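How a chain folds remains the central question behind the approach discussed here. For one protein, we set the task of working out the C-alpha coordinates from the amino acid sequence alone. The sequence in question and its C-alpha coordinates are set out directly beneath this paragraph.

_____
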Amino acid sequence: MLDRIFHLSEAHTTVKSELIAALTTFVSLSYILFVNPNILHAAGINKGAAFTVTAVATAIGCFLMGLIANYPIALAPTLGSAAFFAYNVVIGMHINWQTALASVLVASFLFILITVLKLREKVVDAIPKDIKYAISAGIGLFIAFIGLQNGKLIVNNSSSLVGLGSFGNSDVWLTLFGLILTIILMAARVPGSIFIGMIITAIFGMCIGQIPLPHGIISTAPSMAPTFGHAIFHLKDINTPQLFMVVLTFLLVTFFDTAGTLIGMTQQAGMVDKNGKIPRIGKAFLSDSLAMVEGAICGTAPLGTSVESSAGIAMGGRTGLTAVFVGILFLISMIFSPLLAVIPTTVTAPALIIVGVLMANNLKYINWDRFEIAFPAFLVVVGMPLTYSISDGLALGMIAYPITMIASKRYKDVSPMMYALFVIFIAFFLITNMK
Protein backbone atom coordinates (compact mmCIF):
# COMPACT_ATOMS: atom_id res chain seq x y z
CA MET A 1 0.00 0.00 0.00
CA LEU A 2 2.79 2.44 0.91
CA ASP A 3 4.54 1.60 -2.34
CA ARG A 4 1.38 2.43 -4.27
CA ILE A 5 0.90 5.75 -2.49
CA PHE A 6 4.50 6.99 -2.44
CA HIS A 7 5.97 5.05 -5.41
CA LEU A 8 8.85 3.75 -3.31
CA SER A 9 10.05 1.22 -5.90
CA GLU A 10 10.06 3.83 -8.64
CA ALA A 11 12.17 6.11 -6.44
CA HIS A 12 14.52 3.21 -5.59
CA THR A 13 13.93 3.50 -1.84
CA THR A 14 12.42 1.50 1.03
CA VAL A 15 10.32 2.16 4.11
CA LYS A 16 13.43 1.67 6.25
CA SER A 17 15.41 4.22 4.23
CA GLU A 18 12.57 6.73 4.43
CA LEU A 19 12.27 6.27 8.20
CA ILE A 20 16.02 6.77 8.73
CA ALA A 21 15.84 9.88 6.54
CA ALA A 22 12.88 11.17 8.55
CA LEU A 23 14.67 10.64 11.87
CA THR A 24 17.65 12.57 10.49
CA THR A 25 15.49 15.44 9.29
CA PHE A 26 13.58 15.53 12.58
CA VAL A 27 16.70 15.61 14.72
CA SER A 28 18.14 18.35 12.51
CA LEU A 29 14.92 20.39 12.52
CA SER A 30 13.64 19.78 16.05
CA TYR A 31 15.38 22.90 17.37
CA ILE A 32 12.49 24.81 15.76
CA LEU A 33 10.31 23.58 18.66
CA PHE A 34 12.36 25.77 21.01
CA VAL A 35 13.55 28.60 18.76
CA ASN A 36 10.23 29.45 17.10
CA PRO A 37 8.30 29.84 20.40
CA ASN A 38 11.06 32.13 21.73
CA ILE A 39 10.79 34.35 18.65
CA LEU A 40 6.98 34.38 18.75
CA HIS A 41 7.08 35.10 22.49
CA ALA A 42 8.96 38.30 21.68
CA ALA A 43 5.85 39.30 19.73
CA GLY A 44 3.65 38.69 22.78
CA ILE A 45 2.40 35.18 21.92
CA ASN A 46 2.07 32.70 24.77
CA LYS A 47 5.20 30.52 24.70
CA GLY A 48 3.43 27.30 25.70
CA ALA A 49 0.78 27.71 23.02
CA ALA A 50 3.51 28.59 20.50
CA PHE A 51 5.29 25.31 21.33
CA THR A 52 2.19 23.22 20.60
CA VAL A 53 1.32 25.27 17.52
CA THR A 54 4.84 24.82 16.15
CA ALA A 55 4.60 21.04 16.54
CA VAL A 56 1.05 20.71 15.17
CA ALA A 57 1.51 23.15 12.27
CA THR A 58 4.78 21.47 11.26
CA ALA A 59 3.20 18.01 11.41
CA ILE A 60 0.27 19.08 9.23
CA GLY A 61 2.62 20.84 6.81
CA CYS A 62 4.73 17.68 6.47
CA PHE A 63 1.62 15.56 5.88
CA LEU A 64 0.51 17.97 3.13
CA MET A 65 3.89 17.95 1.39
CA GLY A 66 4.23 14.19 1.67
CA LEU A 67 0.73 13.23 0.55
CA ILE A 68 0.09 15.91 -2.10
CA ALA A 69 3.52 16.45 -3.69
CA ASN A 70 5.26 13.22 -2.61
CA TYR A 71 8.43 15.17 -1.76
CA PRO A 72 10.83 14.16 1.08
CA ILE A 73 10.71 17.75 2.31
CA ALA A 74 9.50 19.07 5.68
CA LEU A 75 7.38 22.20 5.95
CA ALA A 76 7.92 24.14 9.18
CA PRO A 77 7.78 27.74 10.45
CA THR A 78 10.82 29.42 8.92
CA LEU A 79 13.07 31.51 11.15
CA GLY A 80 13.26 34.24 8.53
CA SER A 81 9.50 34.65 8.39
CA ALA A 82 9.22 34.31 12.17
CA ALA A 83 11.83 37.04 12.62
CA PHE A 84 10.00 39.31 10.18
CA PHE A 85 6.71 38.56 11.96
CA ALA A 86 8.00 39.29 15.47
CA TYR A 87 10.75 41.89 15.11
CA ASN A 88 9.62 43.82 12.05
CA VAL A 89 5.83 43.67 11.95
CA VAL A 90 4.83 43.34 15.62
CA ILE A 91 7.69 45.14 17.38
CA GLY A 92 8.89 47.44 14.61
CA MET A 93 5.52 48.50 13.19
CA HIS A 94 3.65 48.27 16.53
CA ILE A 95 1.03 45.91 15.09
CA ASN A 96 -0.54 43.44 17.53
CA TRP A 97 0.23 39.79 16.90
CA GLN A 98 -3.40 38.91 16.23
CA THR A 99 -3.53 41.33 13.29
CA ALA A 100 -0.12 40.12 12.11
CA LEU A 101 -1.51 36.56 12.01
CA ALA A 102 -4.46 37.84 10.00
CA SER A 103 -1.95 39.35 7.55
CA VAL A 104 -0.28 35.95 7.23
CA LEU A 105 -3.68 34.35 6.56
CA VAL A 106 -4.50 36.84 3.80
CA ALA A 107 -1.07 36.28 2.26
CA SER A 108 -1.77 32.53 2.43
CA PHE A 109 -5.03 32.89 0.51
CA LEU A 110 -3.20 34.95 -2.11
CA PHE A 111 -0.59 32.19 -2.21
CA ILE A 112 -3.28 29.64 -3.04
CA LEU A 113 -4.76 31.92 -5.70
CA ILE A 114 -1.50 32.52 -7.54
CA THR A 115 -0.65 28.83 -7.22
CA VAL A 116 -3.93 27.74 -8.81
CA LEU A 117 -3.39 30.31 -11.58
CA LYS A 118 0.17 28.96 -12.00
CA LEU A 119 1.58 32.44 -11.46
CA ARG A 120 4.14 31.19 -8.96
CA GLU A 121 5.99 29.24 -11.61
CA LYS A 122 5.97 32.32 -13.86
CA VAL A 123 7.31 34.53 -11.07
CA VAL A 124 10.06 32.00 -10.33
CA ASP A 125 11.15 32.25 -13.97
CA ALA A 126 10.99 36.08 -13.92
CA ILE A 127 13.10 36.77 -10.82
CA PRO A 128 16.87 36.64 -11.52
CA LYS A 129 18.50 33.72 -9.78
CA ASP A 130 21.19 36.02 -8.30
CA ILE A 131 18.52 38.01 -6.45
CA LYS A 132 16.91 34.80 -5.19
CA TYR A 133 20.21 33.65 -3.74
CA ALA A 134 20.80 37.10 -2.23
CA ILE A 135 17.40 37.01 -0.50
CA SER A 136 18.16 33.67 1.14
CA ALA A 137 21.66 34.78 2.18
CA GLY A 138 20.37 38.11 3.50
CA ILE A 139 17.77 36.38 5.65
CA GLY A 140 20.56 34.18 6.96
CA LEU A 141 22.66 37.17 8.02
CA PHE A 142 19.61 38.73 9.66
CA ILE A 143 18.89 35.54 11.61
CA ALA A 144 22.54 35.28 12.67
CA PHE A 145 22.48 38.90 13.84
CA ILE A 146 19.42 38.19 15.98
CA GLY A 147 21.20 35.14 17.42
CA LEU A 148 24.26 37.22 18.27
CA GLN A 149 22.00 39.71 20.07
CA ASN A 150 19.98 37.06 21.89
CA GLY A 151 23.23 35.46 23.08
CA LYS A 152 24.50 38.85 24.31
CA LEU A 153 27.56 38.52 22.05
CA ILE A 154 26.51 41.74 20.28
CA VAL A 155 24.93 44.55 22.31
CA ASN A 156 23.79 48.13 21.83
CA ASN A 157 26.54 50.75 21.82
CA SER A 158 25.80 54.47 22.12
CA SER A 159 28.85 55.52 20.09
CA SER A 160 28.95 52.84 17.37
CA LEU A 161 25.37 51.50 17.42
CA VAL A 162 26.56 47.94 18.19
CA GLY A 163 29.53 46.47 20.01
CA LEU A 164 30.94 43.30 21.53
CA GLY A 165 29.19 42.02 24.65
CA SER A 166 30.86 41.94 28.05
CA PHE A 167 32.72 38.78 29.03
CA GLY A 168 31.69 39.55 32.57
CA ASN A 169 28.16 38.50 31.57
CA SER A 170 27.50 34.82 32.31
CA ASP A 171 25.01 34.71 29.42
CA VAL A 172 27.86 35.40 27.01
CA TRP A 173 29.84 32.42 28.29
CA LEU A 174 26.85 30.07 28.03
CA THR A 175 26.25 31.23 24.46
CA LEU A 176 29.94 30.75 23.61
CA PHE A 177 29.88 27.26 25.11
CA GLY A 178 26.89 26.31 22.96
CA LEU A 179 28.29 27.98 19.86
CA ILE A 180 31.74 26.36 20.08
CA LEU A 181 30.19 22.97 20.83
CA THR A 182 27.80 23.23 17.88
CA ILE A 183 30.60 24.39 15.56
CA ILE A 184 32.67 21.34 16.52
CA LEU A 185 29.69 19.01 15.96
CA MET A 186 28.89 20.63 12.62
CA ALA A 187 32.51 20.46 11.46
CA ALA A 188 32.61 16.79 12.46
CA ARG A 189 29.41 16.28 10.44
CA VAL A 190 27.51 14.79 13.37
CA PRO A 191 23.81 14.32 12.40
CA GLY A 192 21.54 16.62 14.38
CA SER A 193 24.44 18.85 15.46
CA ILE A 194 22.26 21.89 16.17
CA PHE A 195 19.79 19.95 18.29
CA ILE A 196 22.51 18.06 20.17
CA GLY A 197 24.36 21.32 20.81
CA MET A 198 21.23 22.89 22.29
CA ILE A 199 20.52 19.92 24.56
CA ILE A 200 24.08 19.72 25.91
CA THR A 201 24.19 23.50 26.39
CA ALA A 202 20.93 23.42 28.33
CA ILE A 203 22.18 20.56 30.53
CA PHE A 204 25.46 22.42 31.11
CA GLY A 205 23.54 25.55 32.08
CA MET A 206 21.52 23.56 34.58
CA CYS A 207 24.64 21.97 36.04
CA ILE A 208 26.25 25.36 36.71
CA GLY A 209 22.99 26.79 38.07
CA GLN A 210 22.42 29.34 35.31
CA ILE A 211 19.31 27.58 34.01
CA PRO A 212 16.63 26.41 36.47
CA LEU A 213 15.78 22.73 36.50
CA PRO A 214 12.49 21.80 34.76
CA HIS A 215 9.58 20.65 36.92
CA GLY A 216 9.24 17.63 34.64
CA ILE A 217 10.16 16.23 31.23
CA ILE A 218 6.93 14.69 29.97
CA SER A 219 3.58 16.43 30.22
CA THR A 220 0.39 17.10 28.37
CA ALA A 221 1.02 19.60 25.59
CA PRO A 222 -0.06 23.19 26.35
CA SER A 223 -3.34 24.32 24.81
CA MET A 224 -3.42 26.16 21.47
CA ALA A 225 -6.42 28.17 22.66
CA PRO A 226 -4.44 31.42 23.24
CA THR A 227 -3.59 31.58 19.51
CA PHE A 228 -5.99 29.34 17.60
CA GLY A 229 -8.41 31.17 15.30
CA HIS A 230 -7.24 34.73 16.04
CA ALA A 231 -6.10 35.12 12.42
CA ILE A 232 -9.71 34.63 11.28
CA PHE A 233 -11.23 36.87 13.95
CA HIS A 234 -8.91 39.75 13.05
CA LEU A 235 -9.25 39.69 9.26
CA LYS A 236 -11.35 42.83 9.58
CA ASP A 237 -8.28 44.68 10.89
CA ILE A 238 -6.54 44.45 7.48
CA ASN A 239 -7.83 47.86 6.42
CA THR A 240 -4.84 50.20 6.07
CA PRO A 241 -2.21 50.68 3.32
CA GLN A 242 0.50 49.71 5.82
CA LEU A 243 -1.15 46.35 6.55
CA PHE A 244 -1.73 45.68 2.86
CA MET A 245 2.01 46.15 2.35
CA VAL A 246 2.68 43.77 5.26
CA VAL A 247 0.53 41.17 3.49
CA LEU A 248 2.44 41.74 0.24
CA THR A 249 5.79 41.47 2.03
CA PHE A 250 4.77 38.21 3.74
CA LEU A 251 3.75 36.96 0.31
CA LEU A 252 7.01 37.97 -1.38
CA VAL A 253 9.43 36.99 1.40
CA THR A 254 7.85 33.58 1.98
CA PHE A 255 7.52 32.97 -1.73
CA PHE A 256 11.17 33.68 -2.52
CA ASP A 257 12.44 31.72 0.48
CA THR A 258 10.28 28.68 -0.31
CA ALA A 259 10.93 28.75 -4.04
CA GLY A 260 14.70 28.92 -3.61
CA THR A 261 14.77 26.15 -1.01
CA LEU A 262 12.49 23.90 -3.05
CA ILE A 263 14.76 24.26 -6.06
CA GLY A 264 17.82 23.39 -3.95
CA MET A 265 16.21 20.39 -2.24
CA THR A 266 14.82 18.86 -5.44
CA GLN A 267 18.20 19.25 -7.13
CA GLN A 268 19.85 17.48 -4.20
CA ALA A 269 17.31 14.65 -4.37
CA GLY A 270 17.91 14.23 -8.11
CA MET A 271 14.35 15.13 -9.03
CA VAL A 272 15.14 17.81 -11.61
CA ASP A 273 14.94 16.44 -15.17
CA LYS A 274 17.46 17.05 -17.95
CA ASN A 275 15.50 20.09 -19.12
CA GLY A 276 15.72 21.73 -15.70
CA LYS A 277 12.04 21.14 -14.93
CA ILE A 278 10.91 20.04 -11.48
CA PRO A 279 8.14 17.41 -11.49
CA ARG A 280 5.06 18.11 -9.38
CA ILE A 281 6.37 21.59 -8.51
CA GLY A 282 2.81 22.92 -8.73
CA LYS A 283 1.69 20.39 -6.11
CA ALA A 284 4.65 21.33 -3.91
CA PHE A 285 3.66 25.01 -4.11
CA LEU A 286 0.05 24.08 -3.31
CA SER A 287 1.24 22.09 -0.30
CA ASP A 288 3.16 25.01 1.22
CA SER A 289 0.27 27.38 0.41
CA LEU A 290 -2.15 25.18 2.36
CA ALA A 291 0.45 24.82 5.13
CA MET A 292 0.62 28.61 5.45
CA VAL A 293 -3.17 28.73 5.88
CA GLU A 294 -3.28 26.08 8.59
CA GLY A 295 -0.25 27.62 10.31
CA ALA A 296 -1.83 31.06 10.44
CA ILE A 297 -5.10 29.64 11.80
CA CYS A 298 -3.21 27.67 14.45
CA GLY A 299 -1.18 30.75 15.38
CA THR A 300 2.33 30.81 13.94
CA ALA A 301 4.43 32.70 11.42
CA PRO A 302 4.42 31.42 7.81
CA LEU A 303 5.53 27.86 7.17
CA GLY A 304 8.01 27.18 4.41
CA THR A 305 10.36 24.59 3.00
CA SER A 306 12.89 23.53 5.62
CA VAL A 307 16.56 23.62 4.62
CA GLU A 308 17.16 20.91 7.23
CA SER A 309 15.35 18.53 4.88
CA SER A 310 18.67 18.30 3.07
CA ALA A 311 19.98 16.18 5.97
CA GLY A 312 17.25 13.60 5.41
CA ILE A 313 17.69 13.67 1.65
CA ALA A 314 21.39 13.03 2.18
CA MET A 315 20.41 9.94 4.21
CA GLY A 316 18.34 8.57 1.31
CA GLY A 317 14.93 10.22 1.63
CA ARG A 318 13.32 10.28 -1.82
CA THR A 319 9.54 10.29 -1.37
CA GLY A 320 6.75 11.89 0.63
CA LEU A 321 6.88 9.02 3.12
CA THR A 322 9.90 10.75 4.65
CA ALA A 323 7.85 13.91 5.18
CA VAL A 324 4.94 11.95 6.67
CA PHE A 325 7.27 10.22 9.14
CA VAL A 326 8.71 13.63 10.12
CA GLY A 327 5.18 14.88 10.80
CA ILE A 328 4.46 11.91 13.07
CA LEU A 329 7.67 12.54 15.01
CA PHE A 330 6.68 16.17 15.59
CA LEU A 331 3.31 15.10 16.99
CA ILE A 332 5.08 12.74 19.41
CA SER A 333 7.44 15.55 20.47
CA MET A 334 4.60 17.58 22.02
CA ILE A 335 4.76 15.62 25.27
CA PHE A 336 8.14 17.21 26.05
CA SER A 337 6.69 20.72 26.53
CA PRO A 338 8.00 21.19 30.15
CA LEU A 339 11.51 21.56 28.76
CA LEU A 340 10.40 24.72 26.94
CA ALA A 341 9.95 26.69 30.15
CA VAL A 342 13.63 26.48 31.05
CA ILE A 343 15.19 27.04 27.60
CA PRO A 344 16.47 30.67 27.47
CA THR A 345 17.50 32.57 24.35
CA THR A 346 21.17 31.98 25.22
CA VAL A 347 20.63 28.28 24.46
CA THR A 348 18.82 28.87 21.17
CA ALA A 349 21.12 31.71 20.04
CA PRO A 350 23.83 29.37 18.65
CA ALA A 351 21.16 27.67 16.52
CA LEU A 352 20.21 30.99 14.96
CA ILE A 353 23.84 31.82 14.25
CA ILE A 354 24.57 28.42 12.68
CA VAL A 355 21.42 28.47 10.54
CA GLY A 356 22.48 31.94 9.38
CA VAL A 357 25.81 30.45 8.27
CA LEU A 358 24.05 27.68 6.34
CA MET A 359 21.79 30.15 4.55
CA ALA A 360 24.74 32.41 3.70
CA ASN A 361 26.04 29.52 1.58
CA ASN A 362 23.99 30.97 -1.29
CA LEU A 363 26.38 33.91 -1.58
CA LYS A 364 28.69 31.75 -3.71
CA TYR A 365 26.09 31.51 -6.45
CA ILE A 366 25.83 35.28 -7.01
CA ASN A 367 27.65 36.67 -10.05
CA TRP A 368 29.87 39.19 -8.27
CA ASP A 369 31.82 39.93 -11.47
CA ARG A 370 28.90 41.85 -12.99
CA PHE A 371 28.37 45.10 -11.06
CA GLU A 372 24.83 45.57 -12.35
CA ILE A 373 23.95 42.28 -10.63
CA ALA A 374 26.35 42.44 -7.68
CA PHE A 375 25.15 45.81 -6.40
CA PRO A 376 21.42 45.03 -5.99
CA ALA A 377 22.32 41.60 -4.61
CA PHE A 378 24.67 43.24 -2.12
CA LEU A 379 21.93 45.67 -1.05
CA VAL A 380 19.61 42.75 -0.33
CA VAL A 381 22.25 40.87 1.65
CA VAL A 382 23.46 43.75 3.85
CA GLY A 383 20.16 45.62 3.88
CA MET A 384 18.28 43.00 5.87
CA PRO A 385 20.55 42.90 8.95
CA LEU A 386 21.53 46.60 8.84
CA THR A 387 17.94 47.86 8.61
CA TYR A 388 16.80 45.06 10.95
CA SER A 389 14.12 44.41 8.37
CA ILE A 390 13.76 41.68 5.80
CA SER A 391 11.24 43.70 3.81
CA ASP A 392 13.43 46.82 3.67
CA GLY A 393 16.48 44.86 2.54
CA LEU A 394 14.40 43.07 -0.08
CA ALA A 395 12.96 46.35 -1.34
CA LEU A 396 16.39 47.99 -1.66
CA GLY A 397 17.63 45.27 -3.98
CA MET A 398 14.45 45.04 -6.03
CA ILE A 399 14.51 48.79 -6.63
CA ALA A 400 18.21 48.87 -7.49
CA TYR A 401 18.12 45.96 -9.95
CA PRO A 402 16.16 47.61 -12.81
CA ILE A 403 18.21 50.81 -12.39
CA THR A 404 21.60 49.09 -12.71
CA MET A 405 20.41 46.89 -15.57
CA ILE A 406 19.10 49.91 -17.51
CA ALA A 407 22.35 51.81 -16.87
CA SER A 408 24.36 48.86 -18.22
CA LYS A 409 22.14 48.78 -21.35
CA ARG A 410 20.69 45.43 -20.35
CA TYR A 411 17.15 46.68 -19.84
CA LYS A 412 15.81 44.02 -22.22
CA ASP A 413 17.03 41.38 -19.78
CA VAL A 414 14.71 42.73 -17.07
CA SER A 415 11.34 41.00 -17.04
CA PRO A 416 8.06 42.96 -16.88
CA MET A 417 7.51 41.38 -13.47
CA MET A 418 10.69 42.99 -12.14
CA TYR A 419 9.59 46.40 -13.40
CA ALA A 420 6.25 45.85 -11.65
CA LEU A 421 8.02 44.94 -8.40
CA PHE A 422 10.19 48.06 -8.81
CA VAL A 423 7.05 50.21 -8.66
CA ILE A 424 5.50 48.17 -5.86
CA PHE A 425 8.53 48.50 -3.57
CA ILE A 426 8.86 52.22 -4.17
CA ALA A 427 5.25 52.51 -3.03
CA PHE A 428 6.12 50.27 -0.09
CA PHE A 429 8.82 52.70 1.09
CA LEU A 430 6.57 55.73 0.60
CA ILE A 431 3.78 54.16 2.61
CA THR A 432 5.77 52.63 5.49
CA ASN A 433 8.63 55.09 5.94
CA MET A 434 7.00 58.50 5.62
CA LYS A 435 7.30 60.38 8.92
